[in-house]
Amino acid sequence: MPLHSIALTLVPGVGDVLIRQLVSYCGSPEAVFASPVAKLLRIPGIGEVTARAIRQPQVLLEAEGVMRQLEKIKARTLFYTDADYPARLRGLYDAPALLYYSGAGDLNAPRTIGLVGTRQATDYGRRITDEIVQAMQPYGATVVSGLAYGIDIAAHRASLAHGLPTIAVMASGVDVIYPSQHQKTAQEMQLTGGLLTESPPGVKPDARLFPARNRIIAGLSDVVVVVEAAAKGGALITAEYANNYHREVLAVPGQLNQAFSLGCNKLIRENRAQIYTSPQDIIDAVRWSAEATRAGITTGTRATSAPLPIDVTEEESQILALLRQHPDSHIDDLSWRSSIPMGQLAALLLNLEFQGFVRSLPGKKYQLV
């Protein structure tokens, strides 16, 4: 039951990193709420106010209300320790601890592409978006975007037209479609794709939620393509996150001095995105193979897409995912990103080394074998 996972996200002052810290020390979300205040106070980052807030029964009552809403709208939760939590997100330092999802699409699809851009899309931008989506058909890629006006909705609708699953990452609850004009498209998407958010049901879109939403789009994608963008805006934030997460980033060049070409041209000029001249640029960037797709073989440069070993613990899976995201990581970085205490982490790394999954390097660094 996700009751305690939901409740953790409702505790005032407890964010994603602190949730991982609590679960790491206590063993499970249920154990967090069963722990006395004295034990909670021994956990780094937990003060008196937070410890007592965790012990308040009101948090669990609120979580019960969220669960009733989820049942009503037929949505579900994905906690970061769940097997079906998106593997591409699991190892990111700022990944959501809990996600809400409505749909039939696979959030761990072998290939994903993020398509983002301005809400004021031009005919050129919509045409390029359709071109890109159509070219992804032989690779069976899942298209990720944000359901907004402009390039986002063009990407979702092109995906439906060309028979590709598409995921909308939302800055609201899964039951609050924004803008409301995209309600029909959102319903169609859920048959093969879905709606994903870190906000509980009923939450309305808010300015502060959109940048946070953009990091999920970037994290879910093997490659992010910015089709059209102004000098500032959400698409550029998504590209920045994608670069930070070591994802491939491409930008479609636009006509000089046009407002919604400025962002893409700037990304290219500053070497923060490769130039897009044809769909082949995307395929070359991630080294996808259409033949391998038809044969059911996963290829590509992004190791985060590959399946994790099934005979490891949840904590070990988290470490392996981090090493795929951040090769040759120092043990201090791994501890910080995973919120696993140093002593416990050292033991886990040693066990993974014995199993032949990782190797230690000079300077207390580790890499996958």
Automatic annotation (TrEMBL):
One Pfam family hit: WHD_DprA
GO BP: DNA repair; DNA-mediated transformation
Protein family: Belongs to the DprA/Smf family.
Protein's recorded name: DNA-protecting protein DprA
Domain Helix-hairpin-helix DNA-binding motif class: 6-25, 38-57
GO molecular function, one term: DNA binding
Source species: Rudanella paleaurantiibacter
Domain of life, per lineage: Bacteria
